[in-house]
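Input structure tokens:
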């Protein structure tokens, strides 16, 4: 199929596969830099990562925990002052057997380029609609995997569940009350530079919110109030 300019038109299935590959990839460039920083002999703590990359400690901890959950880092507890009194801190070090990461990162870079090229073949309105539909389908599948009986949630509790699911996918999300509405604030974007080059991809997470809420609460019409790809400090989705 052609878009009228001689370029092949991507099917919904091909576009969905490209988006899914990016969302399941290693993460944004900051996380890769954090991994390289933690690969040193002494490893790194969340506070050291926060200072090195100018991050909030909770964001630094989120990146480190995601790397640990994926098996790339190992976690050890250490007490301040070489074993003295005080609350122990977590030190993250490269895990044995995680040497295949470099290949994984190169694969992610390739998928980001593929996604960028895919978006360039579509008209903006069509690309946004398709991206949101992909996100919505994926969000509905996530909601179906959650605990039975969650379809009767209140909107507020459903939004909290959606924020937790987005966090698990690399968005570092939380909820806030805003002028009679509830907003989901995402401090990170797993799409990285691809979203900056093609802001239409932000429709994916809006679709995920719509799809998850459909399964956990009911049909809603979330809107994007702000996004990092266009210079905002965080992505904001309002219901």
């Amino acid at each position: 199929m052609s878009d009228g300019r001689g370029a092949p038109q991507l099917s919904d299935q091909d576009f969905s596969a490209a988006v899914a590959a990016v969302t399941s990839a290693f993460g944004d460039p900051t996380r890769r830099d954090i991994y390289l920083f933690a690969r040193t002999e002494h490893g790194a703590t969340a506070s050291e990562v926060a200072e090195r990359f100018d991050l909030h400690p909770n964001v630094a901890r989120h990146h480190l925990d995601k790397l640990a959950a994926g098996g790339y880092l190992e976690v050890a507890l250490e007490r301040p002052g070489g074993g003295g009194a005080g609350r122990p801190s977590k030190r993250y070090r490269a895990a044995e057997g995680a040497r295949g990461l470099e290949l994984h990162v190169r694969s992610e870079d390739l998928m980001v380029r593929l996604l960028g090229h895919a978006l360039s073949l579509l008209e903006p309105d069509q690309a946004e609609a398709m991206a949101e539909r992909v996100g919505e389908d994926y969000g509905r599948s996530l909601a179906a995997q959650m605990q039975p009986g969650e379809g009767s949630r209140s909107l507020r509790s459903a939004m909290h569940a959606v924020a937790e699911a987005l966090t698990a996918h690399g968005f570092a999300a939380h909820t806030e009350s805003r002028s009679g509405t509830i907003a989901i604030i995402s401090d990170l974007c797993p799409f990285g530079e691809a979203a900056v080059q093609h802001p239409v991809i932000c429709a994916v997470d809006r679709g995920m919110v719509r799809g998850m809420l459909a399964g956990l609460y009911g049909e809603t019409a979330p809107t994007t109030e702000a996004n990092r790809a266009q210079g905002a400090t965080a992505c904001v989705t309002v219901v």
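The chain has two domains: 1-122, 123-238. The chain is about 50% helix and 15% strand.
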